[in-house]
Amino acid sequence: MMRGRFLIREINGSRMPSKVQCRARSVVAYPIKHNETKVDNEMQHARPTEDIPGPKALPLLGNWFRFLPYIGEYGRADTFTQLRMLHEQYGDIVKLDNIGPRRPNILLFSPELCEKMYRVESAWPMRIAMETLHYYRQNREHIYNGQYGLATSQGKVWHDFRSKVNPHMMQPRTVKAHVAQTSEVTREFVEKMRALRDPKSLELPNDFKNEILKWALESICSIAMDCRLGCLKSDLAPDSEPQIMINCVQEMFDLMYRMEIQMSLWKVYNTRNLKKLFRALDTLNGIARKHIEQAKIKYETTDNSANLHDRSVLEKLLSIDKQTAQVMALDMLTAGVDTTGNVFSSLLYYIANNPEKQEKLREEVMSLLPDKTSPVTQDVLNQTRYAKACIKESLRLFPLAVGNLRTMRTDVCLGGYKIPAGFDVIACHSVISKKPTQFSRTQEYIPERWLRGNTEFPSAKEAHPFAYMPFGFGPRTCIGRRFAEMEIETLLLTVMRNFRIEWHHGPLEYESRFINIVVTPMQFKLVDL
C-alpha cells in the first residue's frame, strides 16, 4: 500500500492566540477530561487487533503470495485497484500484515474513521514512510547533517524543521511574491506548446508529458532559488542537466515503489535497486546542490535590504539557517516535479474531455485576461472561482496519492478495534472520494459541485469533510500545497486563454505506484483561439 505523501491547512502558523481564544481554551478543560475518560472506555471494550477483517496470513507463507505479480489475487492490479478490492471484500477497516518485511497496515475506507485517525495524532504526528529515502539521507551526512527534511523526519527533529520553514511556505503572502515569475515561465511554456504541435493535426507529440515535467521543474526552481535552469529551451539535449534531474526524480519514485511497496530485501542487504536509488539521488543532489550554491553566492553578494517577502524561498531561509535552507531547497526540487506534472496532465485530460465545462471555464478566463499575452497576477487568481473548482474536481478523480499514512505512537481505538502503537494506519481517500455515498454522480467531472450557491448540480457539501483530502491534514499537511496550486492554476488560465483543447484518444491510463503517474501519451489537440 501507499506509504507516503508529498505533494492542507496552515496548522503551525506563528500567530499568537487572542485573549478570547485563551479564555475559550480554559473553558474546555473539563470536557477534555471527559474525552480522556471516553477514550479509556473505548480501549477497555475494544476488540483485539486480530479480529480486524482482512486477508488471513497462512503459516510460513504469510500474505506475500497474494501480491505476487500476475499470480497473486492482488498481484495483477495496481495499488488503487488493490485498495478497492480489499474494501469491497472486507469493509471499512481492513488489516493487512505478514507481507514479507513490510510493516503491518490498517486501511480505513470511511471518512469517519479517517477523521478519528487524524484526531488521535499528537502535535508531532509520526509517519514512518519513504524508508529507503531516509536510509539514503542518513548515509549522506555531509549533505544533510542530521536534518533529513519533512518527508522522512520524525518527532522533535521534524517539528523543529517544520517550524522554521512553515512561515516561508504556507503563508499566502509568500506565494503572492512568486506569481509574476511563475506567470513568465508559463507564458514561455505556452509558446513552446504552440511550436510543438503537428502542423497538420495540431496535436502535441507523444512525449508531451515530459515537456510538462520541464515546466514543473523550471517553475519550482524559479520559486525556490529565483533562477532559471533553461528547461524550456527548444534545443534542450537529452543529456542536459534539467532532463537528467527529471529522469532521476522518475527513477527515484519507481525504485521506492519497487523496494517499499513490492517485495524487496533491501533491509537485509544492499540490493541492486537500492544501489540504483543511491546513484540516482547522488546525481540529482549533485546537480541541485550546484545551483543552490550559486544561489547562495548570489544572495551573499547582493544587497539584502529588499523586502524579505519578495525574495526566493532559499533566500528567506538562508537568513535564518543555511542547513535548513539547503535541505528545503533540495526537497522542493525533488518533490515539485513529478507531483505537479502528473496533476496538471490529468487536469488537462478532464478539461479536454468535457467541452461544456471547458467553455464555462473559458468564459471566466476571458473576463480576467483580456489578451492572450495578459499576465496572470495575484489579483486575477483572487477572482477565479470556476478554475479553482476545476482543479478540485480533477484532484477528486485523480488524487496524487492513494492515501495518507500515520504511524500510531500509542495504542488507539479505531472502528471498535485496538490498534497497537507502531502500526501504520492509512486513510484511503482515493477510494473514499469516489464512493457514491459521499459524492453523487461520482464518476462524472462536475466542477460545479465545489461552487458556493450551486443548486443545479450535486454539491460537495453533501460529502463528509474528511472524504476529500488531496493534500493531507494536520501538522503534516503538504508543505508545498500553496505553491503547487498557484503554479497549476496559472498554467491552466494561460492555456485556456490561448487554446481550445481537444482529446481524440482513449481513456486516461495511469499507474498507481508511490504516486499516481499518468502513462497515456498526452496528445492533446490545440486549436488557436
Written description of the protein model:
With 529 residues, the protein is α+β, with helices and mostly antiparallel strands. 48% of the residues lie in helices and 7% in strands. The chain has helices spanning 19-27, 29-45, 79-90, 111-119, 131-138, 141-144, 155-169, 172-176, 179-196, 208-225, 241-260, 272-301, 313-318, 322-335, 338-352, 355-368, 378-383, 386-397, 429-432, 481-498; strands spanning 93-96, 105-108, 404-407, 412-414, 417-419, 424-427, 499-502, 510-512, 516-518, 525-528. The chain has a four-stranded mixed beta sheet with strand order 1-2-6-3, with helices on both faces. A two-stranded antiparallel ribbon has the order 4-5. α9 runs antiparallel to α10 (208-225) and α11 (241-260) crosses α12 (272-301). The longest helix is centred in the middle third of the chain and has 30 residues, at 272-301. It is globular, with a radius of gyration of 23 Å.
Keywords:
529 residues; alpha+beta; four-stranded mixed beta sheet; two-stranded antiparallel sheet; 20 helices; 7% strand; disordered N terminus
Blueprint (SSEs and pairs):
Layout: H1 19-27, H2 29-45, H3 79-90, E1 93-96, E2 105-108, H4 111-119, H5 131-138, H6 141-144, H7 155-169, H8 172-176, H9 179-196, H10 208-225, H11 241-260, H12 272-301, H13 313-318, H14 322-335, H15 338-352, H16 355-368, H17 378-383, H18 386-397, E3 404-407, E4 412-414, E5 417-419, E6 424-427, H19 429-432, H20 481-498, E7 499-502, E8 510-512, E9 516-518, E10 525-528
Parallel strand pairs: 2-6
Antiparallel strand pairs: 1-2, 3-6, 4-5, 7-10, 8-9
Helix pairs in contact: 9-10, 9-20, 10-15, 11-12, 12-14, 15-18, 15-20, 16-20
